[in-house]
Amino acid sequence: MSSAILTNINTYPIKSIKGVSLNRALVKDTGLELDRNFVITDLNGKFITGRTKSSLVLVESKITSAGLILNAPGMPELAIFYANFSKTYQNVQVWNDQISAQHCDDKIDHWFSMYLNFSCKVYYLGEHSHRSVLGYEHKLSFADGYPLLLISEASLNALNNRLKQPVTMAQFRPNLVVSQCLDFAEDGWHKIRIGDVNFEIVKPCSRCIFTTVNEVNGQRNKQKEPLSTLKKFRQAQDKEIYFGQNLIALNEGSIKIGDKVEIISKQTAPQYSNLKL
Fold first, then answer.
1. Residue 113: count of CB within 10 angstroms of its CB
2. Domain boundary assignment for the chain
3. Is the CB of residue 52 less than 8 Å from the CB of residue 16?
4. Which long-range contacts (CB under 8 A, 24 or more apart) does 81-88 make?
């Protein structure tokens, strides 16, 4: 089989909204440039995601030089300008991490509060923001725990072959999608190179109820698919269900669609104890 290639690059400027497909991207310590640099919180600063507010996946963003332009069903278009952000920093909570984040502005808070029918605030990973994560030395965005997620198209096909209703890659929200490799080949990769960037695959990605949210209608699958099917062949001894691989970038650089995925080193792929074909 020929070498794997990079076929999709996706960034998610605001945590849990619809991804933006890119032809090329700059990779930084925090992951892809702009990836999850914004987070929505409740009034106490606790983060909000599509796990509880599934309609967030219907919010579309366009990246501009000055900020973002947002659209969502039933809402007027919203322009976000970095220049209008407040100078106020507040601690926000993403999982167990406390992060000093820059409050955006009241207009953005109001827009999301109206859309979600829930009082909320929006914060940005500003110049003075810092988030330290155990075992990761670099700056991290509002991502769950790691800066990048990779999945192969072959792995999605292997899952869809087991499903009555196929799902799209968008439900798993990867940053990097690769093709021309065997299904779950990425389980055994350790260090890879794409474009200018060397990456290390640090752990499989454990999956949650968010994967059951349909990216087209924002509705959660009543049968908890595809999570229920994944559980049958991708659940480990720790009872977590894994699909996709978490990466860190070992240097900054650029990547683009069509780049070769060079496998620098491999590792032993995890074993899933309840494998059911």
1. 17
2. 5-30+139-266, 37-124
3. no
4. 82/124, 85/124, 85/126
* For residues 233-256, average pLDDT: 96
**Beta-bridge partners for 143:** none
Confidence band, pLDDT 50/70/90 cuts, at residue 77: very high
Whether 271 contacts 219, CB under 8 Å: no
Eight-state DSSP code of residue 252:
-
Lowest mean pLDDT among 125-134, 149-158, 190-199, 238-247: 125-134
Q: Which residue carries 């994967």 as its tokens?
A: 211
- In single-letter form, the type of residue at position 53 comes to K
How many whole angstroms separate alpha carbon 37 and alpha carbon 125? 5
- What pTM value is reported for the model? 0.95
Highest CATH level, class, for 5-30+139-266: mainly beta
pLDDT at 137 > cutoff 90: no
Q: How far apart are CA 59 and CA 43, in angstroms?
A: 21
Instruction: Please answer whether residues 148 and 203 qualify as being in contact, where contact means their C-beta atoms are separated by less than 8 angstroms.
Output: no
> Span 235-261, mean pLDDT?
96
Quick check: 277 pLDDT over 60?
Answer: no
Q: Identify the three-state secondary structure at position 97.
A: strand
Cα four-point dihedral sign 110, 91, 249, 133 = negative
CB of 263 closer than 8 Å to CB of 13:
no
Output the CA–CA distances (angstroms, integers) from residue 135 to 12, 32, 132, 237, 256, in the order listed: 24, 20, 9, 23, 28
Would you give the DSSP letter of residue 64?
-
Question: Could you give the C-alpha distances from 129 to 26, 28, 74, 260, in angstroms and in order?
Answer: 20, 15, 33, 34
- Cβ 100 vs Cβ 89: under 8 Å: yes
